[in-house]
Design a protein that fits this description.
Blueprint lengths: L6 H14 L9 H8 L3 H7 L3 H24 L6 H17 L1 H9 L4 H24 L5 H22 L4 H11 L4
Amino acid sequence: MPDASHPTRTLLLDTGLGLADRASLGGFPIDEVVRVAGVAKGTFYVHFASRTAYLAALHERFHDRLRDAIGRAADGLAPGAEHLRAGTTAYLDGCLTARGVKAMLASARGEPAIAARVATTNRRFAAETEPDFAALGAARPVERAVLFVAMAAEVALLELDRGGPATELRNELWVLAGITA
């Protein structure tokens, strides 16, 4: 298995993240990635078995960055409304910052490997959100967290379509979560 921290792998992923902001929603060919990165096509396949494996790695990298932003935004806050709002706002804002990446990954969800990554990521975000709903007194905090993550992801996609924050949707998200707007 290739080294996940290898500089060339990192270069290829960073190139893909950059191209996603300029490419169509359908994505971009591997030839474009290697051309912009300045590496041979064979080098790409040393680090990624397929385009799908590459998209899965882009998904993981994108969400790792989001998770870091969420952690920074909610750092030091006790579970509950303020923690949930800070983390969710960081997620939504992060999706808007990397609009092309979010759009490309959303369009790739039809691929089983990407769909599996999305499901895993959503479960992880729900597990991290569950303590907030427990602190808010939700009767079923796990189920509430799962639904909230799905709603937040949908708001992110709607904001992507709009090209910016949708304050009214975010406010409704807080209401549906049991937080006043």
